Amino acid sequence: MKKIIAEFVDTLWLVQGGSGSAVLAAGFPELGIGFVGVSLAFGLTVITIAYAIGHISGCHLNPAVSIGLWVVGRFDVKNVLPYVIAQVIGGIAGAAILFLIASGKPDFVIGGFAANGYAEHSPGGFSMTSALIIEVAMTFIFIFVILG
């Protein structure tokens, strides 16, 4: 049970630290942290939670890691579903907390809440095909690094 709680917490923290930086700190013209700051915030969030509770659950942080570790035989199949459920619930809880914080701003608009997308909803106007290719490629590298 400790491992499941740890996976809930690590995913919640990832949403808070990474997505929270994008929602709460990236957009200020003079002081905002921008794309580089958000990237660093995600990286620092992963490092801090890995050091804090990685020894408990392995700090998978997301279902792709749990599934990838299972596929290569380094994670027991009986743990995959509980980890994935904990990660999804942790992500939802993190997003809910972030929503409560961000919605306290007078000009808060739900449609602009850390939205990602493709085509006209992408900062670069990239297609869905481009989005899928980068998602698959970066997830592969992410899992490759973790397995290394």
Describe this structure in words.
By secondary structure, the chain is mainly α. It folds into two domains: 2-107, Glycerol uptake facilitator protein, CATH 1.20.1080.10; 116-148. Helix content is 69%, strand content 0%. It has helices at 2-24, 34-57, 63-71, 77-102, 128-147. It is globular, with a radius of gyration of 16 Å.
Q: Give the overall silhouette.
A: globular
Instruction: List the domain count as a whole number.
Output: 2
Strand count: 0
**N-to-C CA distance:** 27 Å
Mean pLDDT: 91
How large a portion of the residues is in β-strands, by DSSP E? under 5%
CATH architecture identity of the largest domain: Up-down Bundle
> Could you name the ranges where pLDDT drops below 50 across 5 or more consecutive residues?
none
**What structural class should be given to the helix and strand makeup?**
mainly alpha
Helicity range = 55-70%
CATH topology of the largest domain, which one? Glycerol uptake facilitator protein
How many distinct helices?
Answer: 5
Largest sheet features = none
CATH class of the largest domain: Mainly Alpha
Q: Supply Rg.
A: 16 Å
Looking at CATH, the homologous superfamily of the largest domain is: Glycerol uptake facilitator protein
